[in-house]
Specification:
With about 450 residues, the chain is α/β, with parallel strands linked by helices. The protein contains 17 helices and 17 strands. The chain has 3 domains: about 150 residues, Rossmann fold (3-Layer(aba) Sandwich); about 60 residues, Archaeosine Trna-guanine Transglycosylase, Chain: A, domain 4 (Roll), CATH 2.30.130; about 230 residues, Rossmann fold. The longest helix has 19 residues.
Length: about 450
């Protein structure tokens, strides 16, 4: 069978999603070449307890399931030819590499050795279209220096659509007085599934705000938030809080700027639902991105307290903020011991648990509000992993910011947050979705200053 293309893949293609190998194979039309150095990098990551370690082990299981077709020994290099079903994998190993391994420039050294293998592939598959595939722009640049054709994942070239989560609509006086529980399509003939929030106005200037669930309008006013420990301070925060406390959505997806209050609103609203007896606990999930760059393996930290303080600082800060608000409201107390005691009380009262993806396999979560934070740093595979752990008695709140992607193997086109945001454009028979963007920083003058100064280019 004639193979159309030969893809020489970088390590990050596998770590981004093992499914990429099958997609690139295209039902056996193409050959997927894996340089020996990629195997060494994956072998080194197998021991990690984070997402990268899981994907490395998953690839090892895939490799073990392949069969050897032949080993082709050439002068200065060899090609091991494997296959599984209609997937053809070739592994290229050079007898001697031109690039010396430098420990202080290990990543760059490995990149150059991978590209040496790509040069061999260009010679070995002469007459075929050989493409070096990498998410890393530096690796692709090194490849260009060697006159190799380069490409990134097709997903990277897709577009993140503009969403219309909040819509403004002028209505007549009769309709305005009867909006609550009205079918949205009777009011807005151009309604789309992504229109979750509405600002309805009369010609006399009166305004009513509402969210849409099951294609009906649910009216909103400030009294809805009287029982929250911390009240939302702007309209989009109110839409978000209302969507949680109404308890009619199964999956809520929030794209929010830093300092917009996404984690805080998630928690105070979730606490309200537990107070009302709808759920038993809050489970906070956050990916361990720091382990990618620094080797700080959270899984090896002893005790939940250490994980709570180091791994989940955002959660710790949120709990302390809520504790301070409660203490000032009740007794105007604000000292370290009181705050610590109140924080511990909140954690116990609402059974707040932390979970990182490596602990999720084999578990089933029940009667929980699961808050998946910083989800722009989680892959589609990890998103599937966590959501598949939830039974029908759970609510999932997925929050993140595509302006702050720290995962070296993801971008704004292919992360779990974006994938879920795109799903809001259609109805899903199995669950109710809600989504909104929080675009206003509420932390104070420093957040507003940094937003104005450092994000000015984004607004051009």
């Amino acid at each position: 069978m004639q193979k159309d293309k030969v893809y020489v893949i970088d390590t990050n293609i596998i770590l981004q999603n093992l499914q990429n190998i099958k997609n690139l194979s295209d039902n056996g039309s193409n050959i997927v070449v894996i340089p020996e150095t990629v195997l060494l990098e994956l072998e080194d990551k197998k021991k990690l307890t984070n997402e990268l370690g899981y994907y490395s082990r998953e690839f090892a299981r895939f490799l073990a399931s392949t069969k050897i077709k032949e080993i082709d020994f050439k002068q200065n290099y060899k090609v091991v030819k494997l296959y599984k079903d209609d997937i053809v994998i070739h592994i290229i190993s050079k007898d001697k590499y031109d690039t010396e391994i430098e420990q202080h420039h290990l990543s760059e050294s490995n990149d150059k050795r991978i590209i040496e293998a790509a040069e061999v592939a260009k010679e070995y598959y002469r007459g075929k279209k050989v493409i070096f595939l990498s998410i890393d722009i530096y690796a692709r640049t090194f490849a260009l220096f060697k006159n190799l054709k380069t490409q990134t994942l097709n997903d990277d070239k897709s577009e993140v659509p503009n969403f219309a989560f909040v819509k403004s609509l002028e209505v007549d006086s009769v309709s305005f007085d009867e909006l609550h529980l009205k079918p949205i399509q009777e009011i807005d003939s151009e309604y789309k599934s992504e229109n979750f929030c509405y600002c309805f106005t009369q010609n006399n200037g009166n305004t009513l705000y509402g969210i849409v669930a099951n294609e009906r309008i649910i009216a909103m006013d400030d009294s809805d938030f009287n029982t929250l420990f911390v009240k939302p301070v702007n309209l989009n925060q109110k839409f978000f809080a209302k969507a949680i406390i109404e308890n009619i959505y199964n999956l809520l997806v929030i794209d929010a700027k830093a300092g917009s209050g996404k984690t805080l609103i998630s928690f105070v609203s979730a606490m309200r639902l537990i107070d009302k007896g709808f759920y038993d606990k809050i489970v906070y999930v956050r990916n361990s991105i720091e382990s990618i760059d620094k080797g700080a393996e959270v899984g090896f930290l002893s005790g939940n307290d250490e994980k709570f303080r180091i791994y989940n600082m955002a959660l710790s800060d949120t709990m302390e903020f809520i504790a301070k608000k409660q203490l000032k409201k009740v007794a105007n107390v604000d000292n370290a011991d009181s705050i610590k005691s109140k924080t511990e009380e909140l954690v116990s009262r609402y059974d707040i648990q932390t979970l990182w993806p490596g602990e999720a396999r084999g578990r089933t979560l029940s009667s929980a509000i699961v808050i998946m934070d910083e989800w722009q740093n989680s892959s589609e595979k990890t998103t599937q992993l966590i959501l598949s752990r939830l039974d029908e008695s759970c609510m999932a709140i997925v929050i993140g910011s595509n302006r702050q992607i720290d995962n070296l193997y993801l971008n704004k086109y292919n992360n779990g947050l974006t994938t879920l945001l795109k799903q809001t454009r259609k109805k899903h028979p199995d669950l109710n979705m809600f989504a909104i963007e929080l675009q206003k920083a509420v932390r104070g003058k420093f957040a507003e200053f940094s937003e104005r100064v450092f994000e000015k280019n984004d607004n051009k």
